[in-house]
Amino acid sequence: MIVTNLTGPKLWDDREAFETLTEWIARNLGSETRLVLSSLETEERLQVTPRDQREAHLEQYRKLAMDAGLRQVFFQIDARKEAEERRQHLEKIGMFRALERLGIRQQW
Fold first, then answer.
1. Closest to 57 (Cα-Cα) out of 42, 37, 43, 71
2. Does the pTM of the predicted model rise above 0.90?
């Protein structure tokens, strides 16, 4: 089972509630439940909270979750941005191949 928790330095920063949540997960879902801490922030928020501060925040919460008994705790940053970049890249490859099949060569 995988549980995802959205968090961020200025988004949701309630350590007590998070400790209660992770203890509940460990006790009721098991210590092998994967917990993914995700910092999904808007471009506006990215300018306010630098990446290194978000990483430090997620690392603190990762430690809290592991202290609560969870063994598989991961975090991801900018998942939406990475997914969008991957989608654009795949779309570009698809368009390039379609043009190639039509005999059209395009500089990208």
1. 37
2. no
